[in-house]
Amino acid sequence: MKYIYRFEEGNKDMRRLLGGKGANLAQMTTMGFPVPSGFTISTEACKAFYDNDNQLNDETLAQIDEALDQLSTKVGKQFNSLTNPLLVSVRSGAAISMPGMMDTILNIGLNDQTVQVLAQITDNERFAYDSYRRLLAMFGNVVYEIPEDTFDQILEDTKMTNHYESDLDLTVEDLHTIVGKFKALYIAEAGKEFPQDPKVQLLAAVNAVFESWNNHRAQVYRRENHIAGDLGTAVNVQMMVFGNAGEDSGTGVAFTRNPATGENQLFGEYLLNAQGEDVVAGIRTPQPISTLADTMPDLYNEFVATAKKLEIHYRDMQDLEFTIEHGTLYMLQARNGKRTPTAAVKIAVDLVEEGLISRTEALLRINPDSVGAILYPEFDEKELKQNQPAASGLPASPGAASGQIYFTAESAKAAHDEQHQQVILVRQDTSPEDIEGMVISEAIVTSRGGMTSHAAVVARGMGTPATVGVNGLQVDYKNGIATIAGTELQEGDWLSVDGTNGNLYLGKIQTNDSKVNDDLSTILDWSKQEGDLGVYANADTPADFAQALKFGADGIGLTRTEHMFFKPERLLEMRRLIIAEDAEEREAPLEELLQMQQGDFYELFRLSEGRSVTIRLLDPPLHEFLPHDAREIAKVSGQLGIDPDYLARRVDALKEINPMLGHRGDRLAVTFPDIYEMQVRAIIGAALELHDQGLENQPHIMIPLTGSKVEMSWVRGIVVNQVESLFNQQGIRLKYTVGTMMEIPRACLTADKVAEVSDFFSFGTNDLTQLTYGFSRDDVGSFMPKYIEKGILKADPFQTVDVDGVGELMKMAVENGRFTKGDLPIGVCGEIGGDPKSIEFFESINVSYVSCSPYRVPVARLAAAQAKIKMSKKKDVLANYVKS
Ligand code: ADP
Ligand code: MG
Ligand code: MG
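Above: the input record for the complex with magnesium ion. Below: its predicted structure, written as tokens.
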């Protein structure tokens, strides 16, 4: 078995065998760039190591000897040589880079004797001992697990006693003493001497790298990221070059483009007279790479040319590590560079324009979730650095905002309306009662609740930043005090909320508004061309819809009419309607609500400019609109001019044990058809109004919570009757459709029949998941985290579709629905409609569109394109297979 590959023998496509670092070192070598010679001990050797009771097997040992011989001959240096000692680095590198793995040991080959030889032949004793103390620290830490700090402390102490500013001030004598102290640490901490034999050093280092593959941190990382454990890591052994050999030497890192902005300009830093990770470790302040243009112009030009060639070869922005030894450039690493979401978008677009990659490749390279991150406002980076988070909760709705805090919806609204304050609603939790305060808030914070709590769902729907379930936050309504990690806050105090990571900061932090820039619009345009899923918005207000249109929504996939009833004057009429005991009493409030709703729909249709607008009829249990406690009942009965006892009795009569499974959705239409009738008249009325003004539009009326064909056809009858009577009255007919939510498992199971009376389906994944799993969406907080921690659930099924269960039901409903109606439009609405992983699944079962909150629209658009591209790639593979 061949376990070892010289750099000349490999290339970039051998990652699995050589690891990422090894494959790229080989690639740069074959391309003729100045890479110090070396070889890679492959991942196969790592596997063999584990098969051989965690020891290198004889074959590997023999091949290491052979490779060392070849290296020695090639570079004219040898281990232990008294004229020209060979020094090497041992560098780990798996196919996928991961934290927790042992990294690098430099200067292997130095010992008490070769350090003097090195001093002599370089005529630089300081350099030789500087290298030796580095080896002792790295080797001690990696191989004997002596804490890094204990070495650093000795260094720091020396600098302190001598009042040195930097490690460059250390004298030869200091370094001698430090080396002595380091060696003593070996005995004190590990009970072993530092091995003087370079070969022993090398093998111990290789062993340590292989062992580190299975250390706890690496295992946890692999499990969390679904990386197979049997891949193994490779080890690179490479001749040392010295950045610490004097002022004409140095070490640095560079990106071929700016990793923060994506700007096409070399970006990097270096330190003179330094080694290894000194730049990253921040030991001294590095210099910008451009300054090399003045001090070492030839070398700078060589580096720029190398960087460009590598970027063209890899067809992506590169992250490069290099070292300069006495004015000569050496390349030590190349890999695709990490970048911010903004940079990812810019670089992808630029690379297409430069002809390096195709559009589809560009689309596949951008993480859809990160596109979301570009759109949300962020805290000003400089100001953020001066602030520590005071507490942290679940990142329920992304974006950053500062505001003055209020503990009730009313006080928040008053401060907003009357004093024009930017407000943040801080509560234990929120309920539909709080909607008005939530709408005007810059951010929402709760001490309780999970990612699917009321506060979280509503905030995401509105695109308002929210942090929920904040540990260490207490809200004391009675005394009007909130305590955050020990600090008492009162209404009107400033708070800053980052819903992207869940952090809370005391005081005010400047935010930067982000918007769709040209590069992102280009990506979204390409996505639209490549993808075939429609992407609609969940929008309840004209403001939401306008936002969604800016983000490129195809129209509205879900308007939740209930949210329209939470404005004060409407809530009053709604309450009058709900407590009414017969149809006659309902007439007046219905007439009021009809006017208001028609106005709402008119605005949405007008904004739509002919795009589809799907409106869902009333869905939630009626008691959500009613006052809950005695104080509220007293207030509301006053507003309505009725007897509080009577109101209390009505509220009581409407209470349900299990409201989510109770009197809600289209069940309301079966008992009180007049509410749906009113809504339908408002929808069609608005459409006719616009038609009169010469503006065409296409209303889609959606029935929630249907469980069977008979039920759907009953409710459809109510809807169609109203529509037809309006058409007949006005002598005009418009196009419209009546479809159903698919959110009851029974409807999915009988989708072929439900389709007979539905013009479209739209999966409501929240209810469908709730009912399929039997998980109450409002109560999962108490057990879901444990389920995920224990691996019983891989992910929260309310956030990423449960492919095996809920997904199977959906697939069946799609197939059976289309069996009845071949061209049945089928959508998914709800937050999951904007989740990239779920979208990939929806594409695979031939869903026709998704609908999600405005801020998720661009995310869904890109995810849809990626899903389509990946699907057609899969199809191509099959086609090729069939041909051959
Ligand atoms: P990481 O994976 O943490 O980046 P590396 O193996 O790349 O670790 O090593 C870190 C740094 O050590 C390199 O960037 C380089 O500066 C230095 N280094 C590694 N090998 C050598 C070598 N053969 N000669 C000189 N410096 C080296
Ligand atoms: Mg590196
Ligand atoms: Mg629902």
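Notes for the reader.
Residues 36, 89, 91, 103-104, 106, 238-241, 251, 276-277, 321, 323, 332-333 surround adenosine-5'-diphosphate (ligand 1) (CB under 6 Å).
The longest helix spans residues 857-883.
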